[in-house]
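Researcher: Batch entry, complex prediction.
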Amino acid sequence: GEDVEQSLFLSVREGDSSVINCTYTDSSSTYLYWYKQEPGAGLQLLTYIFSNMDMKQDQRLTVLLNKKDKHLSLRIADTQTGDSAIYFCAERLQTGANNLFFGTGTRLTVIP
Amino acid sequence: AAGVIQSPRHLIKEKRETATLKCYPIPRHDTVYWYQQGPGQDPQFLISFYEKMQSDKGSIPDRFSAQQFSDYHSELNMSSLELGDSALYFCASSGTGTGVFYEQYFGPGTRLTVT
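Model: Structure tokens for the complex:
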């Protein structure tokens, strides 16, 4: 299947910026997403970017897309303890299927 | 705003039993997706329905079946349960008529434990 890779863990201090990275292999991705999952909870759609965009900003969240390198990142400014969660990137392909392929997830720990 | 509803939230079954999971999509959403998330894993796509017809199929075992009803709710039927079926099962929905068909919203999940 499609390979979407993320680093497993990230720790940051409260107030610092967090950068979560994701690489994907399928160049036919149309939309790329970031979801947040808190322990025992569902997947919350945080933001997404269309593949013809380079950047999208939404309050504390900034998404950067480097299509040439197939690299996606999520920057969280002024990280708070409530941001501690697992963050999944996901891609939607152009092949007609509308389902999402998820990355392995990055567990973000915010240290007070 | 209304979200995706899943029931039950928790389910305990024994091996070889059957289970039925239900999903109620966001109002006006016509597409439903089912995903399975094993412990410590990323969600894996199982199957999806658009306007009550199966639209895509992923890694769904033959022991599982699903359907979407006229009110757009969906049910995932799982038979001959195995220990390895223990997982979180998510339903997601999106709406082709909403203008943002690419936004896929997830329910809280059903945690299935097979003993």
